[in-house]
Structure formats: structure tokens, C-alpha cells
Amino acid sequence: MSLPTSLIEQLLFNLLIILVPIYFFQWILPTTKSRINQVISISIFSIITLLTNLFTIESPSSYEELLWSLCYIPYVICILYIGKPALLVALFLSIFQLFRHGWIPFIESALLSFILFLTIYFIRNSYHRLNRRGKYFASIVLSTYTFSFMFIKLWIFSKDEIYLMENTSLKALIILFIGYLLAYILYTLFIETTHKTIMQAENTHHTEKLHMVSGLAKSIAYEMREPLTAVRGFIQLSRNGAMNQSAELLDTAIHELNRSENILKEYTMVSPSPSGEMKEFRLHIVMNEIQLLIQAYANHQGVKLTVVTERDIYVNGHVAKFKQAILSLLTYAINEADYGIIQVSATYCEKTDKVIVEMNKDQKNSFSSSKHSFPSFVKGKNVNLFTTQRLLEEIGGTLIVKKRVGRVMRVIISLEGRKRDQLGT
């Protein structure tokens, strides 16, 4: 198989050699500071630089005077992405020139490579701060600079510069410059695309780690928040019969429990909900557990809480998420009730095949209190109601807030469920 002879064929052949390192950059780019990867990178770029110097572009005339070499393109790319170790590429290129042509080409190659290294390394940090569009523009500047650098080198060191100027047509120079431009743009395109893919993979991995940590934090919060709520309620009940100093101590304990609950609440809002199996659970039992946890707190706040649930209703969902949703909603309602009445009922609707959990809040002091509705929820700013809505959505439920005339507020929760006789048991 004969080597390419025409100018364009030789140029394309050299470009194929130059673009080989792109294939390896998907492994090199993530850890260019690794000693092993630096050795691999320098080895690859050294081989490519030596090959482009070996397969130089020659004049198609019978005189066969050396016309051009693209060896400085991979060298410049190596400086930009590898840094100081690129000096080893210059050393290998100079040694190659020594064994092939003698001492004068060796000194010439070493001097020019060092000058090129100083100029490119000086702009290296600025280059990497550019956005993608800026790097494409920088590719045009670098191709022009490297092309001019090679042209000046041939002008100064060519054995017959008169021949070079008279026999190298403008068309040939334009073709060579297009080759430089194409090489730099392709490098920028593929390397930046690879770098973007790597960064996306790293961000995904980082997000997964955060998800695991936040999931652990939230699982702890779910385990601790409900007991804290119950303990706080019992302490508040005990405080009603406490005297003097004991009352102060209980106030301090209640304050600390409130502070702990707020911290845990932040964890539950920031982190995703813990995953779990969706399974059917008996609503009557779960609602009784919720009432047991929140009843003491309601009594202390002067709120009358009643919970009525049909005994044979089963809901398909996640028990922990459902508990947290109802507890968040009840906590908000109790804080806003102002010594009123909260009635919770759970029934099965045969028409829609849904379980309806309805909460009615009747305030005694609605006209004297500014907290007589759910304005924060409507604006999407209330923590408890936002948590309730998010948790219900995760288990396939919906939440609707309705305002009746006067003092009564109504909250309707709709969930997938069925009655016991439909289960065949």
C-alpha cells in the first residue's frame, strides 16, 4: 500500500494520525493529575508527534523539498490539557530529530518547542476559563498562531527559502491552514463534549451520594419526630399541675423539644422521602395511632380533636408517609385552631372507589384571630401543609382545601383504597 502523494491526501492522512488521542481522552480527562494517566497521555502524544514529524507533507514536485509538518498541533494540545509534562514530548521530538537529521535540527527543534511551550502554557489557564463558544474562537487563534509559527520556522531554517516562497502556492498554504483549523476545532469539539459527559456523570454520582445521606437523615427524623411530639404533649399536660420552679423546668424542656422538632423538620423538607413498599394497611388502626400521638398536644392547646374512621377500610400506600402527612396537617390545624374543634372522619366512597379523609376545623375565636384560614398553604409557603401535599402525592393521594362560610375550614384527602368485603376476606 503506497503512501498518499497529493497535498490533500497527505494532509488528511496526517489529520487522522493527529486525531487518534481523542479516542483515549474519555479515560485520560477525568484524572489528568494521576501519575499513571499522565504517563499514558505523554506516551500517546509523543507517538503522535513523532509520527506526524515522520510523515511530513512534501511538495508533489520532483524536487521533493520538505514543505510542511503538523507535529506541533498535538504538542500544543498536550500543553493545553496536560501542562508541564508536555515538555517530555518536546524532548522526545528533539531526540528524534537528533537521530534522524543531526545536531542542528536537534537544537532547532528544542529551541522552537521551548518557545512554543512558554507561549501556550502562559495562556493555558485563561483558555480553560473560557466557555465553549470562547474555546472555538480560541481554536481559530491557536491554529493561526501554530500555522504562522511553522511558516516562520521554515522561512528561517529552510535550506532553500527562495524555493519555498516561489514554489509554495497560495492555494497550498490555504489548504494547509484549513487543515490546522480543522484539527483544532475537532479537538475542541470532541474534548469538550467528552469533558461535559464526564462532568454530568460526576454530578449524577454526587447527587446519588447526597440522596443516600439525606435519605438516612430523613429516616432518623421520621423515627424521632413522632416520639418527640408525644413526649412534648405529655410534658405539657404535666405542666398544668406543676408548681413554681418545676413549671420553669418543664417550660425549658418544652422549648428544647420544640427546637429539636424544628431541626428535624428541616431535614424532612430538604431530603427526599424514604422509599418503601406500597402495601395495603388498615386505616382504622393507623388513624388511632395518629390520634394517640397528637391528642395530648391538642388537649394542651385547648383544641377538641375527634377522629372517626370506618373500621373495614384499607388504603394502598406507604404507612410512614401517610402518618407523616396526617401528623403535619393536624399539627398545623391545631396551631391555627385557637381553642376550636377539629373533626377528622375517614369514609369509603363507592362512586369514586376512593377513601376520603375529611378534616373540619371550627374556630371559636375566628373573628378576633388573624389565623382563621389556610392562607399560607394557598401561597405555598407553609411547611406543614407543603409537606403534607408532597407526601400525599408520593403515595398517589390528593389534598384539597376548602373554605366554608363563617368559622369552618374543610380539608379533603383522597386516597386509593377499598372496603374489607371487596378484598374477599
From TrEMBL:
> Which of UniProt's keywords are assigned here?
ATP-binding, Kinase, Membrane, Nucleotide-binding, Transferase, Transmembrane, Transmembrane helix, Two-component regulatory system
**In this protein, which residues make up the domain named Histidine kinase?**
219-419
Keyword presence, Transmembrane: yes
What is this enzyme's EC? Answer: 2.7.13.3
> Please, which domain of life does this record's source organism belong to?
Bacteria
Parts of the chain that traverse the membrane? 12-29, 35-55, 67-96, 102-124, 136-157, 169-190
List, alphabetically, the InterPro entries matched: HATPase_C_sf, His_kinase_dom, HisK_dim/P_dom, HisK_dim/P_sf
Q: Which GO terms describe its molecular function?
A: ATP binding; phosphorelay sensor kinase activity
Q: Which reaction does it catalyse?
A: ATP + protein L-histidine = ADP + protein N-phospho-L-histidine
Which top class of enzyme applies to this chain?
A: transferase
This protein's name: histidine kinase
